[in-house]
Amino acid sequence: MPDFILDVQGLETTFRTPDGVVHAVNGVSFGLAEGETLGVVGESGCGKSVTMLSVLGLIPRPPGKVEAGKAIFARQDLLKMTNEEIRHVRGAQIAMIFQDPMTSLNPVLTIGRQLEEPLMLHIGMTKSQARERAAELLSMVGIPNAKDRLNDFPHQYSGGMRQRVMIAMALSCSPQILIADEPTTALDVTIQAQITDLIKRLRDELGMAIIWITHDLGVVAGIAQRVLVMYGGYIIEQAPVRGLYANPEHPYTIGLLGSLPRVDEKDRAKLFSIEGQPPVLYQKPNACPFAPRCKWVLEHCWKENPPLLEVGPDHRAACWVNTKTGRHR
């Protein structure tokens, strides 16, 4: 097992709502190796974003609360840091690109001001040094006339350009880890491809590790080395990207991949759809959370939630059923 730059163990996060306590993340454990790109996939509400926001101390408290777990980075537990301590980690060592750049950028501050702030705060640059570096960063992410564009406000940039600004901001302090939370969701397909290629190029140039959160399995295939599949606040399968796509073991992963159109199939099969609805997590599941929607379900699945079981080289799945035979593992 490689040494992990980030090692998360047993993370649990809840939210108090008028209807009850939502168990959003339920004992998630994973590691991120240096220079690795880790894909995190699953449908909306499965706990992908909440997991990463919990690690960075960005969960609003209340209503949210990290109930348990560890997140070891640079020999320190991020979950035990004070607000002041974790502020020096966020942006400087672990950076995050959020889903919607329009709500992530301050509409009343210029792009230059927003790029300069982390450089002065984390690196101690002077105003003029930060200004020069901000222009370099805009050029690096492919924005023309960078020096002039520093004086513009976010509404003067297109959606794709705002996302490039967010990438520039995230990379400004040369972080060791970049968390990208569905960074291409609100963009059209051609801009999505440009942003993905840009992040891949910068990853190779800067040597940083990336956690890429998405519901788009096609994007993950092109950018990640390893994939975590989440469902109902749990990691239900993890594997190297090639192994997962060639040999999915969990019924949910099989359903996700079956819902993708394929261009390499001679006989065009009908796309697969997963029946039913995701679980409402007012109670922590005692049984397999996917059991109500699973066509392979066994009696044991209703009695006990499976742990991640070894099903291949570096490949683990939380499922009692061997989907090849339909029998108990």
Mind explaining what this structure looks like?
- The protein has 329 residues and is an alpha/beta fold.
- 30% of the residues lie in helices and 26% in strands.
- The protein contains eleven helices and 14 strands.
- The protein has helices at 48-55, 83-87, 101-104, 111-123, 127-140, 146-149, 159-171, 189-206, 217-223, 241-246, 251-258; strands at 4-17, 20-33, 37-41, 64-73, 76-77, 94-97, 177-181, 209-214, 226-231, 234-240, 309-312, 315-317, 321-322, 327-328.
- The strands form three sheets. It has an eight-stranded mixed sheet with strand order 6-7-8-3-9-10-12-11, with helices on both faces. A four-stranded antiparallel sheet has the order 2-1-4-5. It has a two-stranded antiparallel ribbon with strand order 13-14.
- The protein is globular, with a radius of gyration of 21 Å.
- 39% of the residues are buried.
